């Protein structure tokens, strides 16, 4: 058998769910017109006066562009999207599909799986009227400690670019624009709005720009410019950076700013940034029109920006009068079938790193006991904390519930948490009601001077709120306001609880009328940062099980472009939680221990200090492993986790932040219904200090020297000779593979640097499985290696497969800053073939 691409483990299942249609089912007509030709766009631009063209360079509000009726241009709705289609009002009552996180998609090493997820998201965005989605995140997990590592696909630019391009393709196939972000080097959250990345041109081109180049080659219609500075110049005002896209790469898409990223008018305009977000305009729009009138900015710059917005509208089918109605796009995924796509993708991302004694898959028999342990078994982490938080429809099955349902008919299944969470969780995750007894939390809004009665009352299911621009039913966020949250909290256990609150104004938290915490409003220049970090101040209170307590929070804000309120709770940890879990493990035939992050562990605008799990989780792992040799640790985190305990347990399964279908996917994988076919998209080191980026800090000028830490990740470990704990590209699956042969042949077209690498592999195990063949290259005199190609192949037990991977000249080329061009160093280049960055049994030589 032969494979030249990366098929999904269950290709038939993906084929059936990715189309969104059952046999004979007629697709809904979404009335999408074809894209507008350039002549029509020029006519639309001509219908607008110079000043109106300038107004189109800023948004209307937090999520929409301005309309231009003369040009048949409606407002375009744009939404955040790495984890799902975010509600423009951030209202948890507006649900969306919750996707596997970026590192989970990276772990699939499968463009088709990633494309299927993007198809599901694009289909949902289309149904809900979105013209664009801010996704994927193409920044690199260079440190593993960024607060947004979970959004990033990989530490490697080629893997990130390949899968990012697949995401772009899938999303835009539904006529919804993909907006890759954040251009460029926005790989850390510390001082992200002010910091500057110092990086040489070669590294910038080969590493940090490469994923964006591949996304643009895939046809991305938008790109988001980052907050940070690049070599001292803000990315939103960087003429050379944006010039690479528009001039060198010949790209005709639209560049939008990250939110509130601009600091002036002229510099972004001259750099040819096209759209300021959010609206209404602060620096572009009318101010840009004034700058044109004053001779500071050429009119053609404004015309080009407006034309690009019109072109975007044409591509997504939003310009009026475009001709006949078009049928629903091919591959559309219905709402009913989307969860199947996400479950299959989650399973494909699960990465098996240790399986001593083949403890997995599980096949418990009658009379046996299965202990499902750990804090994340009952309270899993489905996503990281960003502005783009998603609330899925219904209540997703937790790992404990899914494993109980899957294995309960065959054996006794028990659960103990072992430890409690140490970070505040939203009040909605606890038994709460309004003062009137309605399930949920009462939220009231008032304006100073409007009397004692609130302007609006509503019952919410969450206690984390964000509003951009306006509060629905209340008015602009820039006006002074008072928010009051009230919840009747019914403790499940007796003990000391911590309640915490904070937001965009002065905040006071009371329990049964007694003040337990106060937090002042953030400094005016740090409102966005504090809101993103969800900073809170807490206090302790002793509560009795079953005895209600009234939690009340009042926040007074002078007004801001963004308003927010966050209220959370940390319940007491049962005194005997650890002992109960250890006892359950000791009496069980197998223990499945689910550990990892909470929603608040990884957060936008805040980086992590280290890669460790909480100390009590590490103690739980070691205590359970000591009494049960068949301990399976499931890591529920979207980042590299320090795992010094890994050799003490029977199995380690990385589940990432797998989205809403975590429970069902985990049950299928542990039972062996599906294979954990993922491979590591990041490196797990033996110590944080083994990373080249460890200890790097901003200098007094808020600059971070990227060049000094290059290369990073697996390339650094290769150069330094330090072994990783879990290598980039590694993963076991449920079978074994033998590599029989590898060869490289120049392609028939005769282009220097183009080769077909052919690899023969045999499945020597007892099950069907999927292998990911990886190809790395090493140039003359280079000490490290670079991923240059990969392909997945599926084969049954005893079957042999031939895998072909094409390498083009860019695989061997390096950026020459002197000639400002890509060039291939003359001499002997190495092609290394194998199954991870450290397991490369074949080394082929080619002379170039």
Structural commentary:
By secondary structure, the protein is an alpha/beta fold. Among the domains are: 338-422 and 574-706, 3-Layer(aba) Sandwich (Rossmann fold); 425-570, Jelly Rolls, CATH 2.60.120; 735-847, Immunoglobulins (Immunoglobulin-like). Helix content is 23%, strand content 24%. It is built from 21 helices and 39 strands. The longest helix has 17 residues, at 111-127.
Integer average pLDDT: 92
- CATH class label of the domain at 338-422 and 574-706: Alpha Beta
CATH topology of the domain at 338-422 and 574-706: Rossmann fold
CATH superfamily grouping of the domain at 338-422 and 574-706: Glycoside hydrolase family 3 C-terminal domain
Residue share in helix: 10-25%
Low-confidence stretches: 1-33
- What general outline do the C-alpha atoms trace? globular
| Biggest sheet layout | 7 strands, antiparallel
Which radius of gyration do the C-alpha atoms yield? 27 Å
**Classification by helices and strands:** alpha/beta
CATH architecture of the domain at 338-422 and 574-706: 3-Layer(aba) Sandwich
- N-to-C CA distance: 31 Å
**Which strand-content bin applies to the residues?**
15-25%
Number of strands: 39
Number of helices: 21
